[in-house]
Amino acid sequence: MIQDREPIRVALLGCGTVGTEVLRLLQDQPEEFAARTGAPMLVTGVAVRRPHKHPEVPEHLLTTDAHALVEGNVDVIVELIGGIEPARSLLLTALKSGKSVVTANKALLAEHGSELYAAADAAGADIYFEAAVAGAIPLLRPLRESLAGDRINRVMGIVNGTTNYILSAMDSTGAGYSETLDEAGRLGYAEADPTADVDGFDAAAKAAILASLAFHTRVTASDVHREGISAVTPGDIAAARTLDRTVKLLAICERVVDEDGTESVSARVHPAMIPRSHPLAGVGDAFNAVFVEAEAAGQLMFYGRGAGGAPTASAVLGDLVAVARNLVVAGKGPRESAHAQLPMRPMGKTPTRYHISLDVADKPGVLSQVAATFNENDVSISVVRQQGRGAEASLVVVTHTASDAALRSTVDKIAQLPVVREVVSVMRVEGESS
């Protein structure tokens, strides 16, 4: 009988929006979770900083001593406090003592994942982290397990709900960045300090995790090229619309193969124009979606709510059930796969395309001078459009694929041309062949 088995003892570190939902579901559905795992699950403690702020948690479970909870009689640690410390120290202590870990801590995994994996391997413990990227969307386990026999070439997605809401609203309303950010804050989509989201730090940490899993290579957040959305203007959005494109903040992780067969990994986060026909273009509001390209499986897309208490709790509980099942049958979950250890490709050597908007003089020879500069830098033009007259004259150029360094150098040289009054905007173009 399941109820006669020793319970799986679970400790929660942190009890915010996600932790509260995890605790509620475990307490509301004990028979259901016992049936799924093969043994009862018993929450033995909840570590928080301010117990009086958590009237929903039974008083006998509350503690402010997270270290004592981790070192006590417990089988699984569920870490939901976020940040690097004390989370890193607590999880290393747990793993080294053979306790399994479930975490949603993307920043910690992106910076210290290899250290945690090594500790788990040495002690024979599990570490699961589905909730660290894209909330409720089952994404990491497919990359880690379902596609383990395939060769993944590219992972591109929208992995931050705040920035997706802002850019989607700018596209639908024509409003500017600042006012849309304010509205996102009023609706609860943006934090009081939105820096981690709008400057791309959150997405970069997630990109590091995705690249590590997809390409069997250790990638940290510092390896990821990062740009945020604060410089995106209504003019950029309007320019994209004229080309039947929209603007999204994308996390792009890809395997790049040179002509000599040498492989490397590119990981980057930045705003980009994508065709409105692309599956990611229709992802609106605060939703997340990730597009995966694999050799055998082809194109796959994962879509859903990327944040929020209940959606993220769903991913945490899925991991908790997996860990508990392993404990019941004395099995182990998947280990770190970093056998490829491909080199990281600098952003300057990464192939991409640019959309460039120029404020130019309305006089003969403008287009020929601009085109000559592109030619001198071995960058070819895909689309060119001149519009307006006099003081309103402008030139829009979309390039073919070239290295980011060559494209950036070309833009810098164009800015020095006497016929160019200003480089109004530069944005990368993704999601279509060139």
Automatic annotation (TrEMBL):
One MF term in the entry's GO annotations: NADP binding
Domain ACT: from-to ranges: 355-428
Pfam families membership: ACT, Homoserine_dh, NAD_binding_3
Top EC class for this record: oxidoreductase
Cofactors: a metal cation
Active site: 206 (proton donor)
Chain sites annotated for binding NADPH: 106
Entry keyword annotation includes Heme: no
Chemical reaction(s) catalysed: L-homoserine + NADP(+) = L-aspartate 4-semialdehyde + NADPH + H(+); L-homoserine + NAD(+) = L-aspartate 4-semialdehyde + NADH + H(+)
PROSITE patterns registered for this protein in UniProt: ACT, HOMOSER_DHGENASE
Signal peptide positions on this chain: none
Pathway named in the protein's UniProt entry: Amino-acid biosynthesis; L-methionine biosynthesis via de novo pathway; L-homoserine from L-aspartate: step 3/3; Amino-acid biosynthesis; L-threonine biosynthesis; L-threonine from L-aspartate: step 3/5
Keywords, ordered alphabetically: Amino-acid biosynthesis, Methionine biosynthesis, NADP, Oxidoreductase, Sodium, Threonine biosynthesis
Residues noted as binding L-homoserine in the record, renumbered to the chain: 191
A single GO BP: methionine biosynthetic process
The enzyme's E.C. designation: 1.1.1.3
Transcription regulation keyword on record: no
Binding site for NADP(+): 13-20
Classification via InterPro entries: ACT-like_dom_sf, ACT_dom, Asp/hSer_DH_NAD-bd, HDH, HDH_cat, HDH_CS, NAD(P)-bd_dom_sf
Function: Catalyzes the conversion of L-aspartate-beta-semialdehyde (L-Asa) to L-homoserine (L-Hse), the third step in the biosynthesis of threonine and methionine from aspartate.
Family: Belongs to the homoserine dehydrogenase family.
Record-given protein name: Homoserine dehydrogenase
Organism field: Saccharopolyspora phatthalungensis
